[in-house]
Automatic annotation (TrEMBL):
Record's protein name: Uncharacterized protein
Keywords attached to this entry: Membrane, Transmembrane, Transmembrane helix
Species the sequence originates in: Chironomus riparius
Location in the cell: Membrane
One record GO biological process: sensory perception of sound
Family note: Belongs to the clarin family.
Transmembrane intervals: 7-27, 155-183, 195-221, 241-268
GO CC annotations on file: membrane
InterPro entries xrefs: Clarin
Membrane topology term: Multi-pass membrane protein
Length: 294
């Protein structure tokens, strides 16, 4: 190993790897937001539950004793700065559903998840439930109109971009940690001093990601989680005040701490190198016969 105190640099490499794992988990899992949903006109109907990540999610829709599992996928229109999580299973149907919401047209009933089956025939049970409540489910769907409660496409896209930058700078910090274990780079950014920079930027990118998504949550998601069933005017569910951050969001704190620990470890290593005892200096006089020994 070319560097002194290389074990400390190896530990920074491990923390960078842990940070990268946390970011990948955050990217790939669907628990950025978790929320209960209540039927707006009659809370006794049942409590539904949903969770979604940056790209997709799951909805467990409950009406009395009937449960239906629904897949959710985000769709955005950047020209109007709006996103929502559609329950349709193909790109064309999601696009059509977006148009229907904007125009206030009739919405198709959400199809069941392809990976899960309902305990009963959902459509049959919904019709029975509607009769019990003296409400016609199909008429309510036809009466559904658009409400301006979509998510901000700009904030969502910015979140994705900064999370991608977080993973990039985490990879860079891991690369230069390994480089400093194996050799002695000369330039500032590739040396151990550069590890301050790369880890600092990675921690900053993660922090900005959390701040931006917190803004998206506070302004939009906390009032309406923006899925098909909460964007209806009639026959809709409400999530106002019920949404919470999930583990896919909070795990980014682990990534931030990993990089802060790395900065502390690099500082500690440099401190040890600066304060380690200097090698002894032997002074030999010209007339000293001990010079013959050397």
């Amino acid at each position: 190993m070319a560097k002194s105190k290389w074990v400390i640099l190896l530990v920074t490499e491990l923390f960078s790897a842990l940070s990268l794992v946390a970011i990948i988990v955050s990217f790939s899992t669907d628990h950025w937001v978790v929320s209960d949903m209540k039927y707006e006109s009659n809370e006794d109907i049942g409590i539904s539950y949903m969770h979604y990540g940056l790209f997709d999610g799951k909805l467990t829709q409950s009406i009395y004793q009937t449960t239906k599992f629904i897949d959710l996928t985000i769709i955005c229109r950047y020209d109007i700065n709006k996103c929502f999580y559609s329950c349709q299973q193909t790109s064309d149907r999601r696009s059509n559903e977006f148009d229907q919401l904007l125009k206030g047209e009739n919405l198709a009933i959400c199809p069941a998840s392809r990976t899960k089956q309902t305990a009963r025939n959902f459509n049959e049970q919904v019709n029975m439930t509607a009769m019990t409540m003296k409400i016609n489910y199909d008429e309510m769907s036809e009466a559904a109109t658009f409400e301006d409660e979509f998510l901000s496409a700009g904030l969502w896209l910015t979140t994705v971009i900064f999370l991608a930058l977080s993973s990039l700078f985490t990879l860079i910090s891991a690369f230069f940690s390994m480089l400093n274990i194996l050799c002695n780079p000369i330039s500032y950014l590739s040396s151990t001093h550069g590890l301050y920079v790369w880890n600092g930027i990675a921690a900053l990118m993660c922090s900005i990601t959390m701040i931006i998504y917190s803004s998206l949550f506070g302004i939009f998601i906390s009032k309406n989680i923006a899925i098909t069933d909460t964007l209806r005017t009639l026959s809709r569910f409400t999530s106002d005040g019920l949404a919470q951050f999930g583990f896919s969001f909070w795990i980014l704190i682990l990534s931030i701490f990993c990089h802060l620990i790395n900065i502390g470890l690099v500082y500690y290593r440099n401190y040890l190198l600066q304060h380690q005892p200097k090698p002894p200096v032997i002074t030999v006089h010209k007339n000293d016969s001990t010079i013959l020994v050397y």
